[in-house]
């Protein structure tokens, strides 16, 4: 069969994280590896009521083919949500996608020619790396500090790579680091994009899940020339299984996305779109998000206090103000994939950080997820990781 596959099919290997997740699915494993929301918070009863209303009121339409752009009442609700955080947009500037992951894939399809340069944070979201790799992207990583991508480094990168197509950034509670791009850097990023004539792809799935500190306007808020393409999702504030995300950009850019989406899947699930619009009509989704934030805040605080208590003092880590992840940096000499095997033997798991660096080379980091485990399991799991770390580091 080897001569039958496209060259493109060879550009990505099955995601290492997915392979890891398979092993960690055993019930005895305390897993901080995935990026799953807390399922006990899914508003199942309210969703049942909304589904019932959709089937009663629009049963046939909800099961029929529909337009590629998406269900207008849902797009209107998305515009209202964006307006509340500082993005003013017309309905025509919003395309509903099958999760924001599809928006990432379509972004690659729309902008990346073979060998094109994508500028990204170092590290960055693994499934975006893999999506862009399929289109044969080259990655230039820009260093971060606790306040996100460093703008002086970004400017140097833009000078060295004038051919770059876009900057891919996750400004709020980044996956994998949990770090947030500081306010003045958001504005600066747009100024630099204008100056060096590149686009910005702002991937912002976590912005609404802020449980500490002050809310910051998205990068798109500072867009002066229609250069920022904003991606977001219902996955972290509602239900990821419904696969509902969106792209917001200029109408010109959205028209291009629409043409590509049409050949990808015609349109996003009509029933899921109507259901979500109905849920928002019948319920206060912001009140629901508040509940999510309360739970994640507590779990994050538990995990942070466990780091203090059980991990060696030499270990550095992020202190997220929202989202799902804590990033841990170990001494340079430690390989987190070796630690991973040892931890798994003790029935506890995390994701080694190496795959989040598109050009490789960094082995001493790991990502911890706190959204998917109750507090007692977090404490027990962190104790076990701490024991392995104490052993490894004191050897
Ligand atoms: N972007 C980032 C940074 C993510 O962490 C995720 C989910 N893990 C996605 C996009 C995709 O989310 P979805 O397709 O569920 O909207």
UniProtKB/TrEMBL annotation:
<dbReference type="InterPro" id="IPR015421">
    <property type="entry name" value="PyrdxlP-dep_Trfase_major"/>
</dbReference>
<dbReference type="InterPro" id="IPR015424">
    <property type="entry name" value="PyrdxlP-dep_Trfase"/>
</dbReference>
<keyword id="KW-0808">Transferase</keyword>
<keyword id="KW-0663">Pyridoxal phosphate</keyword>
<dbReference type="InterPro" id="IPR004839">
    <property type="entry name" value="Aminotransferase_I/II_large"/>
</dbReference>
<keyword id="KW-0032">Aminotransferase</keyword>
<dbReference type="InterPro" id="IPR050859">
    <property type="entry name" value="Class-I_PLP-dep_aminotransf"/>
</dbReference>
<dbReference type="InterPro" id="IPR015422">
    <property type="entry name" value="PyrdxlP-dep_Trfase_small"/>
</dbReference>
<protein>
    <submittedName>
        <fullName>PLP-dependent aminotransferase family protein</fullName>
    </submittedName>
</protein>
<dbReference type="Pfam" id="PF00155">
    <property type="entry name" value="Aminotran_1_2"/>
</dbReference>
<dbReference type="GO" id="GO:0008483">
    <property type="term" value="F:transaminase activity"/>
</dbReference>
<feature type="domain" description="Aminotransferase class I/classII large">
    <location>
        <begin position="44"/>
        <end position="385"/>
    </location>
</feature>
